[in-house]
Amino acid sequence: MGRHLPLLVGLPLVLGLLLGLEVWSPYFFGEDDNFHQFLPVILDSIHQVEAGDFPAMNPHQSMGMPVFAAGTYSISYPGIYLAYWLAILCGSQQYFMEVYAILHIVAGYVVTYGLLRRLKVEGVIAACTAASFVLGAYVIFMGRAWYYTYPTLVFLPLIAWATHDLVARPATLRRIIWWGVLCGVYFHAGNAQLWVYTMFFCGLMFLIKVVSSKVWMQKWIALALASLVALVIASPLLVAQYQLVANVDRDGSSFASMQDCFLNYLLWTSGGYAAYTGSFLFGTALLSIALRRWDAWCVLGIVAILSSLGKPGGIWFIMADSPVFEKFQHPFKFVLFATFFMLVRGAIYVDWTRVLRLSAVLNLILLVAFTWNRGADHASDMPYAPLSAASDQLLGSDRIYSFASSRLLGEKYAQSMTNNFALYYGKNSISSYSDGLTYELSEQIRQREHIQAHPREALQAYGCRWIIVHQSFEIVRANPQAHAFAWSAVQTQVPIFESLQPYLIERHREPHQVIYELPDAAALAFPQGVPVQPLPMEVNGSWMRVELEGLRPEQNKIIVNFLMRPGYAATQGAKTLPIEADQWGRMQVTLDDHEEDLVITYWPIHW
User: What is the pTM of this model?
Assistant: First the structure.
């Protein structure tokens, strides 16, 4: 107990800050993309798993949006199910993001402390450094927008620890398997970009350390075996994700700068990019570099800093033209790695230098003050406001097209059904959050092009019966200069809305939005050429069943009103049927007979 007293003393501090933020700013971690994109899909996917289904896709949005293969929803990561269960125990599934964040921050604190103790850092310094890492500005302020930041707090120190042991200690079978399991499971935790960066830095660490090893050949063999274990565990999602995004035109952005990243590691600023790490430990690490006290942690820290700067750092130029790295956006994601490696280096140097030991404590005090100052005035739009009974009943299960700002604006914004909100309410929308992955698939692009070119005909063909006009659309439209960030998306919607207006029938009005009906919307499944002859249909996350009731003998082609994507297969009994895209991109199936139901399955891995 005495050896780990600093760990136990620091634990209430970490928990206290997190719970304090929740008291002052309820739903602190449910902001931005966590609010718009991730939470609705994660909750729906968990519900599908509870019902015994596999959430390969989300049938409620984008006319069948891939979920598992996207990877960003962590469907195969055990941590989301633990967080969900604990959120339910806390009283509501809407606490998911709060529980998920706190679980990983606390676990990351414990694991980082363990790594530092393995590196022979004194207990108090290890506890302060570990707390400084998991409470860093990037973690707190980016994590509340991108929930997948939090698993890295656990897996980065764990994999660094395992890599260190793989080189510094005998490469036993247990250590090989442990490294492989950690890396394989981590791939399922929500963000391939952070995983690749972690593998890059841990590979670089291995390379630096193995140079001085007398048994370097055995170490390389051990790493190869461990990597094979990791690939086996990661492969189901790795293959599915590669097949989904291989042809997506996604260029890496360079949104970062010297001021936004490097200077903000050290400076407490009231605005700009939140990257503050407390100054003292980070500065101590820089001092050790200036005094030529170099080691592997120094090299990793400097590489991460330069990478986080985007174009000014130079390294991003090389990555932007390299395989895999070329599809990654936002070099400021390297801030998390720069923070980790520089804090570890600072802790090691402080432990060698008695006069600097106080800096670990001062670093934590400064960081806590900064986090509280920047975070306590935060206001979330969570929880999602319930639909009125009239809206809920009117919208039913028919498809919706929304006119709304792409970002939080106006009252009861989630009820606009834009982004991924329709999924939370159990409604159907033909659009989804613009995530840079599924949103940029060729079938999604063609769907938007059809809507832009022929609004009424396309929306009718896609089965959109309801048109929601949220006040955020009108706010941005009335004053685009004041809402420049949202104007580009609204600007593309304005001609669509103006084209639709003569055909819309107002059905329900509330203070924050109006619901219109667009007549003659096609059914979800119908015989070719008769879009208003609906066929009974059952849909879930991996298959659809269409009952072939009332078909005439000559009606042997069925339109299933979901976008045709790779991975779909149509069958009747044991017979596989031809399936292709029609002129609108919907699935068109040629029947073998009218006796058995039509079943369409979706599997994210396909050949």
Answer: 0.93
